[in-house]
Amino acid sequence: MPRNCIRETSAKENEIFLWKMDPPNKERRSPENGPSSARPCCSSLKMFLVALSFAYFAKALSGSYMKSTITQLERRFDIPSYLIGVIDGSFEIGNLLVIAFVSYFGAKLHRPKIIAIGCLLMSLGTFLIALPHFIIGRYKFETSIRSSVNSTSDLSPCPVRSSVLAAGPSTSSVPSSGCEHESMLSMWIYVFLGNILRGIGETPVQPLGISYIDDYALEENAAFYIGCVQTISVIGPVFGYLLGSVCAKIYVDIGFVNMESISITPGDARWVGAWWLGYLIAGLITLLSAVPFWFLPKSLPLPERRLAKYSPERTSFIKDSPLLEHKYQADEPANFLEMAKDFLPTLRSLLGNPVYFLYLCITIIQFNSLIGMVTYKPKYIEQHYGQSASKANFLMGVINIPAVALGMFSGGVIMKKFKLSIMGAAKFALGTSLLGYFLSLFFFAMGCENASVAGITRSYTGMESLYKVDSSLLASCNADCQCPETNWDPVCGENGLTYFSPCLAGCRTSHGSGIDTVFEECSCVAVGNHTASAGQCNNRDSCHRVFPYFLALSVITSFIISLGGTPGYMLLIRCIRPQLKSLALGFHTLTTRTLAGIPAPIYFGAVIDTTCLKWGQKKCGGRGACRIYNTTAYRIAYLGLTLGLRTASFFLCILGLVVLRRHVRRQEHNTLANGGTAAGELQALRKEENNSCNSDQCPQTADYGPERETRL
């Protein structure tokens, strides 16, 4: 009799367990609809994939557009690079505020609707970033020849000293009108707050979206689906940088000023594009991405093929897992207090996994390198190779980002085709990272000489090399003029030297207007007709020759490094227990953005600021944005910091591989041991039951079969 009870109870438990793992769908079970179990699940999952891909596209577009506008924001608000890093890092501050709670509690609530709310907040933050343009005054760039615009009369950029002294102090030392109002409130604060709101809204998209796919997709398709979503997230920056390229060509106050009166071009260091326009477009796209998630279900039935593959040990594990049981009984209300009490023990259990902890440390260091490099790469192209902001953004979007997208997608395909194990994925990711690292060392050889600027990088005779930081620009040839040394209004002399302003070039007369202005009788230009034209000289031929090689190597290294992106991400998912998946993804995002996303742009920007040779001056006084960099020092600082961080991460990678190998061997040993024990117990149970059945004490039920027992 006890044996009969044991067998009957086991069958009943199996039936209850199957009911939990595959909750009844009323439409599917009804006689009218017939047996159509797979279609609703697959269609809903595909709809979620499309919606999540669009949300990834929207957030990636707005994020990349933010990075494409760093030089525009730097010039518009007249702030140094480190402060731009603070603005860029404010996105991660928003993530820091809520990501741990969203990842933990969001996994137990309606994940699609939480993602929809996040998209709405992202949209609102993007609109807030564009707000300063509509409440701030018109952009006024530095120039010492304002009165010559739209004038064909001869005007003197170099007034004689006596007349200047009679007129009073230099205009550069007198605060302009409206200065008191602007000093009370810095407009970049709105950009800072808007980016924080973007970070808060972006929080649920990745951890809840990825865990939702991994929960309800077949195991062999999960890596491919996640690879597709990650690829879409890399395609988003293509359009983000292209949007940045288009907006950078448009003058910031387009429609409000006469463009013929603008004496600068997009290649000028004072040019500011229509940065606000792209944020309005990105905000609208993000707003649309929130719509589909409101119509998606809270949970999906587990695919039957995936259920059939579960081994007896894994089935027993899922049955005993409270989080997974909740996952398939999604309609049960969650107790908030119980979830809160369980948070710290769960987090402690997660960080107690040595593989996960080492993976976390490695990605923190590598993300510091990656985020700092990507944030300032367009600026590096502008300053080092003399390209305009529009062209730098265009090249990032058309050449560099597609290589990253192709690498991410190819990595997912390779992992699916070769069915890489955890160790295989780790070795593949490390190998691609090392290869890309060694190729990146060639960037140091692709140097570019400094621009020839009289009094800063060259003497006024053009023969001696100088590297003076904020030194006096006065010389004997311009000593008769009372020239402001803070107004960056470059002119190109016939001798190929760039002068800080027409006054500092010693020019006495000028004619023409706007960009066609020509300066004559320039005492510092000692060759030809002693003339100079508006704008900086463009005679860095070696830069133009080496720039294509820089682009080619950048594409190759980006593709190779991105190959390991998807296998590395799957390593993160597979090295932890399933019930900790959402928390692990969320905590990984939290720590990388806190310890990499926030500080990296700030200290990268601070290091770049140390290479500045000449700073601009704010409207109300004080140091503004940098006008000229020491390109050699810029290259060493930028590339050295990027590759130095990656060098440090490889030491932890070696330790991580050793720990992972031990972890995998231990798991294999435990699986074999548990499998042998379970098989022995099952054989003993069958033997006892057969003996009982031979004594006519074991009636067979109609729905009992060895196949079902073996599967369970």
UniProtKB/TrEMBL annotation:
<keyword id="KW-0472">Membrane</keyword>
<dbReference type="InterPro" id="IPR004156">
    <property type="entry name" value="OATP"/>
</dbReference>
<feature type="transmembrane region" description="Helical">
    <location>
        <begin position="276"/>
        <end position="296"/>
    </location>
</feature>
<keyword id="KW-0406">Ion transport</keyword>
<dbReference type="Pfam" id="PF03137">
    <property type="entry name" value="OATP"/>
</dbReference>
<dbReference type="Pfam" id="PF07648">
    <property type="entry name" value="Kazal_2"/>
</dbReference>
<dbReference type="GO" id="GO:0006811">
    <property type="term" value="P:monoatomic ion transport"/>
</dbReference>
<dbReference type="InterPro" id="IPR036259">
    <property type="entry name" value="MFS_trans_sf"/>
</dbReference>
<feature type="transmembrane region" description="Helical">
    <location>
        <begin position="594"/>
        <end position="616"/>
    </location>
</feature>
<feature type="transmembrane region" description="Helical">
    <location>
        <begin position="426"/>
        <end position="446"/>
    </location>
</feature>
<feature type="transmembrane region" description="Helical">
    <location>
        <begin position="114"/>
        <end position="136"/>
    </location>
</feature>
<dbReference type="GO" id="GO:0016323">
    <property type="term" value="C:basolateral plasma membrane"/>
</dbReference>
<feature type="compositionally biased region" description="Polar residues">
    <location>
        <begin position="691"/>
        <end position="700"/>
    </location>
</feature>
<feature type="transmembrane region" description="Helical">
    <location>
        <begin position="222"/>
        <end position="243"/>
    </location>
</feature>
<keyword id="KW-1133">Transmembrane helix</keyword>
<protein>
    <recommendedName>
        <fullName>Solute carrier organic anion transporter family member</fullName>
    </recommendedName>
</protein>
<dbReference type="InterPro" id="IPR036058">
    <property type="entry name" value="Kazal_dom_sf"/>
</dbReference>
<dbReference type="InterPro" id="IPR002350">
    <property type="entry name" value="Kazal_dom"/>
</dbReference>
<feature type="transmembrane region" description="Helical">
    <location>
        <begin position="356"/>
        <end position="374"/>
    </location>
</feature>
<feature type="domain" description="Major facilitator superfamily (MFS) profile">
    <location>
        <begin position="48"/>
        <end position="665"/>
    </location>
</feature>
<feature type="transmembrane region" description="Helical">
    <location>
        <begin position="636"/>
        <end position="660"/>
    </location>
</feature>
<feature type="transmembrane region" description="Helical">
    <location>
        <begin position="79"/>
        <end position="102"/>
    </location>
</feature>
<comment type="similarity">
    <text>Belongs to the organo anion transporter (TC 2.A.60) family.</text>
</comment>
<feature type="transmembrane region" description="Helical">
    <location>
        <begin position="546"/>
        <end position="573"/>
    </location>
</feature>
<keyword id="KW-0812">Transmembrane</keyword>
<dbReference type="GO" id="GO:0015347">
    <property type="term" value="F:sodium-independent organic anion transmembrane transporter activity"/>
</dbReference>
<feature type="transmembrane region" description="Helical">
    <location>
        <begin position="394"/>
        <end position="414"/>
    </location>
</feature>
<feature type="region of interest" description="Disordered">
    <location>
        <begin position="690"/>
        <end position="712"/>
    </location>
</feature>
<dbReference type="InterPro" id="IPR020846">
    <property type="entry name" value="MFS_dom"/>
</dbReference>
<keyword id="KW-1003">Cell membrane</keyword>
<keyword id="KW-0813">Transport</keyword>
<keyword id="KW-1015">Disulfide bond</keyword>
<feature type="domain" description="Kazal-like">
    <location>
        <begin position="471"/>
        <end position="526"/>
    </location>
</feature>
<dbReference type="GO" id="GO:0043252">
    <property type="term" value="P:sodium-independent organic anion transport"/>
</dbReference>
